[in-house]
Design a protein that fits this description.
This protein is mainly beta. Helix content is 9%, strand content 41%. It is built from four helices and 44 strands. The longest helix has 23 residues.
């Protein structure tokens, strides 16, 4: 059905309903406590990443505060409360601190360098008790109380951080909420930028809109917008807060987010952008079209399915407005001329249509898998193929219409040509192998995967590598901090243990650099010392290294 937005009563009614549904979110912003929380670091807030930015497979759940390229800046409790949890990991958020506040909110601080005072002492004690650098420790209410403005940590670069900064979140009732909505002082007088507009005609290849801001198309189409924001002291390509698209002056599409649930839904970011383009360029084009399996509170306000269906031969104006959190707005207007030729027919895709709302079970003599319901974002067809490989078949599992990764984990089993506990299910992406933790039953190898693509089996018989970086047995030790590089070629490091003079000693593992750091001050003896490091990979290959060191 052709839609004229100026006289379509149905469209206006649907839009009114959508805006009413959005109203509780807007009212929620007004009810957020203003001025209750202080900034977690002294000085002006300068961001290297904004809230809800598009990332591969997830939304950015907080704000990234710049620390001038250094670590060790004082981090403060943003309000009175108590420490409820501490997590330490070589990956993800690295060293993480969680503080619960009396008003029901929780503040979260990630990528820390260290914890202060009693917090740090208790973390260290827990690591020695568990004999593990990686820990999750929950604390009862009132055990470690903190006051607003009390130093609780120092900023760092731990975990999967791309550089020194503080990742900060405010959460409540299982949701993370933009911290800048709570009245934290933040200066931004710079207009956001519209960096790209792409048109996606149904059944044809997408194309970019040039500087002339005019394009022609036959038949239905949807739009993708790539926009970024900058602020005083912040990086130049942060995410924007809101995108609005108007058709002949009437709102057609609006995307914004105040917050989102943490446990489920963040991965649906893949369905809101042009995922193949994003994976190749890291440019997130927000799409007006919808997929039914991407529903949730983050769903934009849009007309119907977000596809423009305009009358042949007609001319329309499409306006785009992009806002940052401070309301700075950049606008652009395009003219679309609808052709009179019939749109091309989409290419026919063979295969069984899979209902995305139902489980799907595929069985073959060489591999099988089971997709839980809602693994796909819409009804689709899967390409399921098997070709001869070296240790097992090379199998392909991939959608043919919506080229998106799966929303759910699913079990994939491949039948190997032999039996070995050193065989792993791997995904081959054209340049390297990504291994999965694999279980074996006879010559069937099963892994839980969250990818589509080409999979096969690979053999890992190579033990981990262990290489000292700042010490040797030849020269006396001149430092109290020992650094060691460890690595594995396929299965990945599963465990490591370090012993100094026969006693287990904590080694901090940085996953980015694959480096162990052993703070041995006070435990190194004058004269002879022994150091032993044992590393084991994911299939049981083990390396043990021993050194005799003099000090």
């Amino acid at each position: 059905m052709d839609i004229n937005p100026h006289n379509s009563h149905t469209y206006r009614l649907l839009l009114t309903i959508c805006l009413l549904l959005l109203a509780p979110s807007a009212l929620g912003q007004e009810s957020l406590p203003q001025g209750h929380f202080r900034t977690p670091m002294d000085g002006d807030i300068a961001l290297s990443a904004t809230f809800a930015e598009f990332r591969m497979n997830h939304f950015h759940a907080g704000i990234d505060m710049r620390t001038g390229g250094t670590t060790g800046k004082a981090v403060f409790a943003v309000a009175d409360g108590y420490v409820s949890c501490v997590r330490v990991s070589p990956w993800g958020g690295g060293k993480m601190l969680y503080i619960n506040h009396p008003n029901g909110y929780q503040s979260v601080y990630m990528h820390l360098k260290s914890f202060e005072g009693d917090i740090g002492k208790r973390v260290l004690a827990e690591q020695y008790e568990q004999r593990s650098y990686s820990i999750v420790k929950e604390f009862p209410e009132g055990l470690i109380r903190v006051k607003k403005g009390q130093q609780v940590a120092r900023s760092g670069n731990s975990g999967s951080s791309g550089g020194p900064h503080l990742h900060f979140e405010l959460r409540r009732d299982g949701r993370t909420i933009n911290p800048l909505l709570f009245g934290l002082p933040y200066r931004d007088s710079i207009m956001p930028s519209i960096r790209g507009i792409r048109i996606y005609p149904i059944g044809e290849q997408p194309f970019a809109v040039g500087k002339e801001n005019t394009f022609s198309v036959n038949g239905p189409f949807h739009i993708g917008i790539y926009a970024t924001d900058a602020a005083e002291g912040s990086t130049a390509k942060n995410g924007v807060d809101c995108v609005e698209i108007y058709l002949d002056g009437t709102l057609f599409f609006k995307y914004t987010t105040e917050g989102f649930p943490l446990e489920k839904g963040s991965r649906k970011v893949n369905a809101l952008v042009d995922y193949p383009h994003f994976a190749a360029t890291r440019q997130p084009y927000i799409l007006t079209r919808s997929l039914p399996g991407a529903e949730g509170e983050w769903v934009p306000v849009r007309q119907g399915d977000g596809v423009f269906r305009l009358k042949p031969g007609s001319t329309h104006h499409i306006g785009i407005k992009v806002f940052d959190i401070k309301g700075n707005c950049t606008e652009q207007v395009m003219t679309v001329k609808m052709g009179n030729s019939p749109p091309p027919c989409p290419a026919k895709i063979e295969g069984e249509v899979i209902n995305y709302t139902e489980p799907f079970d595929y069985q073959s003599p060489t591999f099988h898998f089971q997709l839980p319901a809602h693994t796909l974002y819409a009804d689709d067809r899967l390409r399921c193929a098997s070709d001869p490989g070296i240790l097992g078949p090379v199998v392909t599992v991939e959608p043919q219409v919506n080229l998106l990764p799966p929303d759910q984990w699913y079990p994939l089993a491949i039948r190997g040509y032999s039996e070995s506990d050193k065989l792993l299910v791997v995904r081959y992406n054209g340049t390297k192998l990504n291994a999965y933790k694999t279980s074996r039953e006879g010559n069937w190898y099963t892994a839980s995967v969250r990818d589509f693509g080409r999979f096969t089996l690979a053999l890992d018989t190579v033990p981990p590598t262990v290489k000292p970086l700042n010490f040797s047995e030849v020269k006396p030790i001149r430092t109290n901090t020992l650094r060691v590089k460890i690595g594995d070629d396929l299965a990945g490091i599963e465990t490591y243990h370090c012993y100094l003079n026969g006693q287990w000693i904590l080694a901090e593992y940085d996953g980015k650099t694959a480096t162990l750091t052993i703070a041995a001050g006070g435990k190194l003896l004058t004269g002879r010392n022994t150091l032993k490091i044992i590393t084991t990979d994911g299939v049981g290959n083990t390396t043990e290294k021993n050194w005799t060191l003099s000090k």
